[in-house]
Each structure stands twice: as structure tokens, then as C-alpha cells.
Design a protein that fits this description.
- By secondary structure, the protein is α/β, with parallel strands linked by helices.
- The chain has two domains: 224 residues, Anaerobic Ribonucleotide-triphosphate Reductase Large Chain; 182 residues, no CATH class.
- The strands form three sheets. A seven-stranded mixed sheet has the order 2-3-4-5-6-11-10. A four-stranded mixed sheet has the order 1-7-8-9, sandwiched between helices. A four-stranded antiparallel sheet has the order 13-12-14-15, with no helix packed on it.
- Helix 4 packs parallel to helix 6, helix 9 packs parallel to helix 13 and helix 16 packs parallel to helix 17.
- The longest helix is centred in the middle third of the chain and has 28 residues.
- The N terminus is likely disordered.
- The site of zinc ion has 8 residues, from loops.
């Protein structure tokens, strides 16, 4: 048997273990597809929907923001010396990521790395003063671990996100500062972990705020490394929620409302998500007398089946063996004690998300116009996303489960859907070989950044399962914190809840020079490592899937 190493995901899988994993994963995915109701697997195979992480179907959930304060095993550390405590706590963080990262299918996040770990160390009677050098060394080591350790599924790094920015104690501020400084200094080829800076008035948003300096530091780091991204706690969708309870997973998953009362992200995550191919439905509807009504009806039919699959997967996960979750049992990182209440009472707090991709292509098919160029088409775009959200809300009521609407990032599927649609239809929207992720305006729109944010902002309040708006810059805005800060303000007032800045980052393999080039301006080498963000996390472009590669090449600055 020939071992295949087709890069289905964005991450690297080149090693003996990685290849064997890949073969097993493919078989498992096929086995799952064959075991499903044949109408469900047909929808997936035909490209109406994409069931994400099929190999994990019924075996585990997707992602989790750790309830670290509740879970922290103080007794393990209390008798150690100060130096041992510091080193051991950082080792413990790595241990958690490594174990949990192989127990669930998606990302892991800390909602308040700065303030939570300040509290943990204070409880352990460790002060940051006098121990700055050791803390810096440990944080530097943690960053390198997140970037370099590829033990997840044999040969990928872990999807880890640190949310920071709100901690105002000296200790918390020190941890934020150290994380940002060390990440900034770590070099151009270090692009993990994902760091999310939480922006909130009264804490860091304005010059009079105590952590305003940290926001500036974060922006300077973004200007060099595209990380952090920004969780805008004062935006319309999030302004009434305790910002400490907000947390983002690098992939953009947002978990807030809980029909079982544990509102906020901490100790909760996404259980499963399925994305719907909007352009396919639009292509089908475009031949009818009333394409928009037809589109809505067909979407409802498909979403109804999608809901059934999400519930089936959720129920199968609930009835799986609790022994599949040894780290969850050991450390209780969910908002409930899984040992005491069991899988059902724990995982019911997670979200079931219906996602979508290709809104701009769907609108172009239905109206002949880009929604970001034409007012009527824009109104229709908003109307359709609102329509999807209203349906998802009815599911919450009817099934008493945390259904949410996800503006999907398009990992893997942006190319897969187009490939399948091309076999059935011919339309100009298919010629570029990818669909635009979620509700984003086309990546080659060349709209000014402020305009892109104004247009995308109003969608954020509907996509309660997660979404992001990106500003595409032509090159790294080195040193221009002010320029980025202005865009943060425009984003907040436009309704954007989560914001990222992208720019092409090329690093010369010969001499390490970074910038935007095909030939190194310093040593002339054409051996270039290209780092890009397409699905939330930064990756080296060699590992992109075909659709993602084409999208990335088409990007034009805002
Ligand atoms: Zn060079």
C-alpha cells in the first residue's frame, strides 16, 4: 500500500507516525461516512455540506476554553521551591495542551492567561518581582513549544490560543508584557501560539486606561507578526457580557450564551460544526422564477438535515466511553465536574454550530452583483444571514441545545466545494477556484480597510458561533501602532467582534530577511518561506490546500 500524504488540512504531516495517522484517519472518515444515514453522507459527498473532522464523529468534541482556575492542582506544587514552582507550572501548561490536544479534535484556549496565571502564582506564594528572568525564560520556552512541538496526531502542532489584555495587577501586566515581548522577539519563523488581545474601555482601549500601553505593545507585535488578533469586547454583540468571560479560539469559535446557565466561554467549547455551501444552493436556485425564495427554502431543507447530523454526532459523543477522556476526568477543565455528573451534563454546555461559506459568491449568483458594490445586494446579504440566524435560534428553543451560527473559516472546504460545483455548473464565480470564507467581501476587493470593516461589521452580531473580519495589508505595517489602533476603533464602531490583520510575510531561507518578495532583496535567494493566515492560524504556505493556496495568491490589500 502506498502511503498518501495529501495535505487535507493546513498543517504539516510528514513523518512515519504522521503518514500512518493520515492513512488511518482517511479510513476512519470513510467508515464514518458509510455508517451514516445515506441521505446525510450523500449531502456531504455531493458538496452541499461539509461535516468537519469526520474521523472524530461520535468520539470527541471539537474545542475547549479551559476552566483553568477551577482545575488547577495547587497541591502538586505547593511544597516546591519558588524556582521549581515557576518551571513546573509552565511544564504543567504544556502537559495540559499535549494531553488535551489528543483528546479532542480542535483548539484549546485560555480565556485570561495573564490574570488567571497571576492569581495561580499568587496562591502558590510566588511573586513576579525578583523572578522576572526565570518567568521570561519559561514564557519563551512555552512559545517555542507551541510552535515547534508536533506531537498532535503524530505530526502537527497544537491549536493553542492565549487570550490576554484585561489583567491590571502588576503580575498580570507582567505576564501579558512578557508574552508579547517574547513573541515579538522570537523571530519571523515562530508563528504560534495564537494570541488574542481583548480590547475593553476602562482597561486598555483609551490613553487614560491602565493597560493602554499593553494595547500599543500588542499592536506593534501585530505589525510585525500578524499576531495578536483582537477580541473587541465593547462591540455591539459583546458589550453586555463580562469581558473576562469572553474568549476566542484561534479558529474563531465564539461560545457565549448557554441555555443551561453557564454563560461565557470558560469551561465550554464547540461540540461539532457543519458548514453549508451557499454558492451551491444559489446555483440551484438561480434557474427558478423566484431565486431568493427558492434559495431560502432549499437552505432550510439542508439546514434541517444538518441539524439532525449535529444532534446525532452529539448524542453519539455523549454515549461514548468516558475513558476516552482521561485528561478531562483528571483535571476537570469543563465547567462541570465530568466525574461527578458524567458526559451528558458536561457536554450539554457546548455548542452545535451550523456554518456557512461563500456568501459573496451566493449573492453574486442570485443578483448578478457583488454585495459590497451594490446596496440592494448588500441588504439581501444581511437579510440572508439574519434569516439563517433566526432559524438556528428556533433550534435552540425546540431542541434545548446550544445551536449557533458559525461564519466558517473555510479550512479545506473552500477548494473542495468549488471543485464539486464545477462538475455541475458553469458560472464566473467558479473560475477563481475557491469560495470566499463566511460573509467576507472578496479578498481581491481592494476596498479601503475602513470600508471593509463597515461592510462586514453588521454581520458579526448574527454569527454568534464565531466570525472574524480581516484587514489585508500590502505589507507589514512595521511600527505603525497608531494606524492599526484607528482600525480597531473603526472595527468596534462597525460592530466587528473579532479582528485580525493580515499581510504577506516572506522569509528568506538563506539569510532570514523578512518582508514581501519573490527574491530576497539582501542575498538574492529565491528560496522563500511564505507565512500566511487563511483559516485563523498562521501556517507555512507549502502546507495549504489547493483552494487556500489560490485564495491566498488572489489577496489584494485593503
Ligand atoms: Zn536572503
Amino acid at each position: 500500500m502506498k502511503l498518501q500524504n495529501k495535505n487535507d488540512n493546513a498543517a504539516n504531516r510528514k513523518s512515519y507516525v504522521g503518514k500512518v495517522y493520515n492513512v488511518g484517519e482517511k479510513q476512519e472518515k470513510n467508515k464514518v461516512l458509510e455508517s451514516l444515514n445515506c441521505n446525510w453522507s450523500k449531502l456531504h459527498k455531493d458538496g452541499y455540506i461539509h461535516i468537519h473532522d469526520l474521523d472524530a464523529y461520535g468520539l470527541t468534541y471539537n474545542c475547549l476554553t479551559f476552566d483553568i482556575l477551577n482545575a488547577f492542582p495547587y497541591e502538586r506544587f505547593i511544597d516546591l521551591s519558588t524556582e521549581e514552582k515557576i518551571v513546573s507550572v509552565f511544564d504543567f501548561i504544556k502537559e495540559l495542551f499535549a494531553k488535551m490536544g489528543n483528546e479532542q479534535s480542535g483548539g484549546m484556549s485560555l480565556a485570561n492567561f495573564d490574570s488567571d496565571f497571576a492569581k495561580i502564582f499568587e496562591k502558590l506564594k510566588v511573586d513576579c518581582r525578583g523572578n522576572e528572568a526565570l518567568f521570561n525564560a519559561c514564557i519563551r520556552s512555552l512559545i517555542l513549544w507551541c510552535n515547534n512541538i508536533h506531537t498532535r496526531m503524530g505530526q502537527t502542532s497544537y491549536y493553542v490560543t492565549f487570550n490576554i489584555g484585561l489583567g491590571t495587577s502588576d503580575f498580570a501586566r507582567f505576564l501579558s508584557k512578557s508574552l508579547l515581548d517574547n513573541f515579538y522577539k522570537s523571530g519571523d519563523l515562530i508563528y504560534k501560539p495564537n494570541i488574542v488581545f481583548k480590547v475593553h474601555k476602562g482597561i486598555n482601549r483609551f490613553p487614560e486606561d491602565v493597560n493602554f500601553d499593553l494595547l500599543q505593545k500588542a499592536l506593534l507585535c501585530t505589525a510585525k507578526k500578524m499576531i495578536p488578533t483582537y477580541l473587541l469586547c465593547d462591540c455591539e454583540a459583546d458589550k453586555d457580557i463580562d469581558p473576562f468571560k469572553l474568549s476566542i479560539m484561534g479558529c474563531r469559535t465564539r461560545v457565549v450564551d448557554d441555555i443551561f446557565g453557564k454563560n461565557g466561554a470558560i469551561g465550554r467549547g464547540n461540540i461539532d460544526n457543519i458548514s453549508i455551501n451557499l454558492p451551491r444552493i444559489a446555483l440551484e436556485a438561480s434557474n427558478s422564477n423566484n431565486p431568493i425564495e427558492m434559495f431560502k427554502n432549499r437552505w432550510l431543507e439542508i439546514a434541517d438535515t444538518t441539524k439532525d447530523i449535529l444532534i446525532d454526532r452529539y448524542e453519539k459523543t455523549l454515549s461514548s466511553d468516558i475513558e476516552l477522556f482521561p485528561t478531562n476526568c483528571e483535571y476537570k477543565l469543563w465547567c462541570e465536574d465530568i466525574n461527578k455528573v458524567g458526559l451528558y451534563e458536561t457536554l450539554k454546555h457546548g455548542t452545535l454550530s451550523i456554518g456557512f461559506i461563500g456568501l459573496t459568491e451566493a449573492i453574486e449568483i442570485l443578483t448578478g452583483n457583488k454585495f459590497w458594490k451594490d446596496n440592494e445586494s448588500y441588504k439581501l446579504a444581511i437579510e440572508l444571514v439574519k434569516f439563517m440566524r433566526e432559524y438556528v435560534d428556533t433550534l435552540r428553543e425546540k431542541y434545548k441545545l446550544n445551536f449557533s451560527l458559525l461564519a466558517t473559516s473555510g479550512e479545506l472546504i473552500s477548494g473542495r466545494f468549488v471543485e464539486l460545483d464545477k462538475k455541475l455548473y458553469d458560472s464566473p464565480v467558479l473560475h477563481k477556484d475557491y469560495y470566499t470564507n463566511s460573509f467576507h467581501v472578496d479578498v481581491d476587493s481592494k476596498l479601503p480597510a475602513y470600508r471593509k470593516l463597515e461592510l462586514e461589521g453588521p454581520f458579526h452580531i448574527y454569527a454568534n458561533g464565531g466570525c472574524i473580519s480581516y484587514v489585508e495589508l500590502a505589507e507589514a505595517p512595521f511600527g505603525n501602532a497608531e494606524g492599526l489602533d484607528e482600525l480597531v476603533e473603526i472595527a468596534i464602531s462597525s460592530g466587528v467582534h473579532y479582528l485580525g490583520f493580515n499581510f504577506p510575510k516572506d522569509v528568506c531561507k538563506g539569510c532570514g530577511t523578512s518582508g514581501t518578495f519573490d527574491k530576497c532583496p539582501k542575498c538574492g535567494s529565491k528560496e522563500i518561506t511564505r507565512i500566511r493566515r487563511v483559516s485563523g492560524y498562521l501556517e507555512v504556505q507549502d502546507f495549504f490546500t489547493t483552494g487556500k493556496m489560490k485564495e491566498s495568491k488572489n489577496r489584494k490589500a485593503n
